[in-house]
Amino acid sequence: MAVRACGLIIYRRLQSPPPSMVTDGIEYLLLQTSYGTHHWTPPKGHVDPGEDDLQTAFRETQEEAGLQASQLTLIEGYKKELCYPVHGKPKTVIYWLAEVKDCNTKIKLSEEHQAFQWLKLEDACKFAEYEDMQEMLKEVHQFLCSRE
């Protein structure tokens, strides 16, 4: 049985850049785990009994980053499933895309994470050491750029 987890790719837009630079104003939130290899990841976690996937994504985001659902705008039309092995067992993680309504919203980490950063795409890809995560971030960025 595959482990199932859900999360949100959180982004914010900085001040209003000139139209030609619109995508330069996007930053992604990554959290550094306080366990294992201290890898960087969007907020995510395991589905609890009786919860649907999207509820899990919002709950985990609140628990891990201190962001309430009311502080986020879920972006329609983007959902991504990543599948990879963890300790020899298959894991499926489903991500949705959400924007913080106020780019100055404070992040409050749980004990599961030791640091967070808001990163432009290039840096986010450097921090996210897994190739599928890097690909997803690039895909999200393309998706956001195509919506302008």
TrEMBL record:
The keyword Nucleotide-binding applies. Its cofactor is a divalent metal cation. It comes from the Eukaryota. Belongs to the Nudix hydrolase family. It is an enzyme of class 3 (hydrolase). Catalyzes the asymmetric hydrolysis of diadenosine 5',5'''-P1,P4-tetraphosphate (Ap4A) to yield AMP and ATP. Exhibits decapping activity towards FAD-capped RNAs and dpCoA-capped RNAs in vitro. InterPro entries: NUDIX_hydrolase-like_dom_sf, NUDIX_hydrolase_CS, NUDIX_hydrolase_dom, Nudix_hydrolase_domain, Tetra_PHTase. This is Bis(5'-nucleosyl)-tetraphosphatase [asymmetrical]. Its EC number is 3.6.1.17. GO terms for biological process: AMP biosynthetic process; ATP biosynthetic process. It catalyses: a 5'-end CoA-ribonucleoside in mRNA + H2O = a 5'-end phospho-adenosine-phospho-ribonucleoside in mRNA + (R)-4'-phosphopantetheine + 2 H(+); P(1),P(4)-bis(5'-guanosyl) tetraphosphate + H2O = GMP + GTP + 2 H(+); a 5'-end FAD-phospho-ribonucleoside in mRNA + H2O = a 5'-end phospho-adenosine-phospho-ribonucleoside in mRNA + FMN + 2 H(+).
